[in-house]
Amino acid sequence: MFRSTRIRALALAAACGLLATAGTAQMQPINAGTVMDSVARLRPGQYIWVPEIAPRGPMLVVVNIATQRVVAYRNGVPIAVSTISTGKAGHRTPTGVFTILQKAKWHRSSKYSNAPMPFMQRLTWYGIALHAGSLPGYPASHGCIRLPHEFARLLFDETNLGMTVIVTNQEPALRIGAKPTGPAFPAGPAVWRPELSATGPVSIVVSGADRRMVVLRNGVEIGSAPVAFDGVIERTQAYVLQDVVGGDYRWKRMTLPGESSAAASYAAPDTGRFQGSDPFRRALAGVVGPGTTMVVIPDSLGLGPDLAPPTQNPDVLIENEPGVADWMEDASVFAR
């Protein structure tokens, strides 16, 4: 069985590159180390926002009360993560699966002293919404999910009415290994099931720690395979496919926000470098095309011993409650 939720959660490098503080809008690139370490270090009001890593596909937002984080996914790839503030004692933010019922760039609370709620996205008709607000570093709202002001604006512009928002409350582990621990060519078969999602945009996530590639189409995992590298992956890299000519994949390195163009100047990967199985590469060539994005990360995807070398902490880092996993496994929800 595919571990789609885990992959989407742990491939958070797809959202790497920018740590922005609400008050200063200061950009801070992630130059080395695991992305999850950087996410864990986010201070109140900071966020990561890289929508270009997955420019097309269905969106989903997952709020975690335990970690005081929200993660936005597009095409199954995390494109953003932010610190939040949820409901304080006596005003608990409800958990469950919600849809965006109403949006307003400027809104005031009808329940709490006409309090301003910029970039409001309503989840219930009894007062629960996503909106910009103060983030003291702990749950402090009357039940709403407060976001950094600039992040709230960015998210508001990307979402649509009817989009799903999942609110969960699960404490994750927050550290994973950054370097391979297994053999040069990892055990575990290539898997290819394109029928799980027949159409839609394709995104690829490659884990340096697991030495494995995962392929997502329209937000659903359709395949994975072992890969090999020339060296150790020490920093996140993002690429967009320009063309495929005679089996030659022509990738262009993307400059992530906050990253200098000089840092992005070294050569893009090729299929020879990644040494995936030939049948898998041939199958992959049938679904990718110009505009396909690929993210190469140092982090583990937490695939477990059946698909990847063991890691220190292969458990879930952001979300993997049964409700979230069931939702992510059901391809039909993307038709909503």
Structure, explained:
This protein is an alpha+beta fold. The chain has two domains: 4-168, L,D-transpeptidase catalytic domain-like (Beta Barrel); 191-311, L,D-transpeptidase catalytic domain-like (Beta Barrel), CATH 2.40.440. The protein is 13% helix and 26% strand. The chain is built from six helices and 18 strands. It has helices spanning 4-10, 35-40, 149-158, 271-274, 278-285, 322-329, and strands at residues 20-21, 46-49, 59-64, 69-74, 77-83, 96-99, 102-104, 120-122, 129-132, 145-147, 164-168, 191-192, 202-207, 212-217, 220-226, 237-245, 248-253, 293-297. The strands form three sheets. The chain has a seven-stranded mixed beta sheet, with helices on one face. Strands 12-15-14-13-18-16-17 form a seven-stranded mixed beta sheet, with helices on one face. It has a four-stranded mixed beta sheet with strand order 7-8-9-10, covered by helices on one side. The longest helix has 10 residues, at 149-158. The chain is elongated. It starts with a helix and ends in a 7-residue tail after the last helix.
Describe the structure concisely for a colleague.
The chain is α+β, with helices and mostly antiparallel strands.
